[in-house]
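Hey forum,

I'm writing up a methods section and want to include a predicted complex as supplementary material. The small molecule is magnesium ion. I've pasted the protein sequence and the SMILES. Can someone with a working setup run it? I'll credit the forum in the acknowledgements.
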Amino acid sequence: MDNKGDTRCGFVALIGAPNAGKSTLLNALVGSKVTIVSRKVQTTRALIRGITVEDDAQLIFVDTPGIFAPRRRLDRAMVTTAWGGAHDADLVALLIDARKGLDEEAEAILQRLDEVKQPKLLILNKIDLVAKEALLSLAKTANDKAAFEATFMISALKSEGVGDLKRWLAGRVPAGPWLYPADQMSDAPLRQLAAEITREKLFERLHQELPYHSTVETDVWKELRKGDIRIEQTIYVERESQRKIVLGKGGQTIKAIGEAARKDIAEIADAKVHLFLFVKVREGWGEDPERYRAMGLEFPKE
Ligand SMILES: Nc1nc2c(ncn2[C@@H]2O[C@H](COP(=O)(O)OP(=O)(O)OP(=O)(O)O)[C@@H](O)[C@H]2O)c(=O)[nH]1
Ligand SMILES: [Mg+2]
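Reply by user p_vandermeer:
Happy to help. Structure tokens for the complex are below, copy them as they are.
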């Protein structure tokens, strides 16, 4: 490891409203898919770390669930987890979707940001969709409402401004030894990322509320001779009617989900993957502590 001498290392939490682009940014920062992304809100459910090295600094980014007004138990667990991620980091980056600007959700987060004592930075994301003048006025308004050390304007999707952000953070995180090997990009086991990838495909292919009523777990991860990997996963839904939709006519939907997931997992695992998906009805899995443990979430008492 080439981290002798004056190294730096720090945790940077990415927080923001659902859909602001936190996970897209994490993947862009790390240069690899370590967390899942979708057009739908509330995709990320737990804290996901992505690790990268810039100059002498190791930057450990923490992707968090979007912060919104929670209703269900799962929502509460996600939002509590997001704020917890912020409180445990060395630096906190607030992402705002520049096209949405300071809507109700962004305002609510800004109001609570005072409680976070760590140095904060503002990231206006999705600048590819917004005129420059609007960006400048948004930056000013947001800076009037909270104390940010710096403001960045980026497009996580197009990787614009991401290099500048990384270089600034490399100079800003505390001095200290690196916590991970230089080439490590994630601290999550592949079997967990594999479950997340399948969940991403559910988010892509299922409509309306259904993705929010489902969760995915990897039950079996077995390396076969020749280096192939056999993976068995369970998709939990809450009702038989939902199971039918996930399966689709003649099993079409589950087949498409499995095919898309298998491709992505094979790329990440760098091996041939045999993926077997099972869909199970587990009424009230959203109230089952075991499912929260599998997701890496604390089970909220109420
Ligand atoms: N045009 C544009 N779209 C973006 C940009 N960054 C992210 N997106 C899109 O915004 C959507 C949400 O992105 P995510 O990265 O999943 O957002 P998130 O903040 O992690 O969302 P949650 O996990 O639900 O909190 C996806 O469709 C992304 O492709 C950007 O810079 N420009
Ligand atoms: Mg996300």
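Some notes you might quote in the supplement: The mean pLDDT is 96. Residues 22-23, 43-44, 63 surround magnesium ion (ligand 2) (CB under 6 Å).
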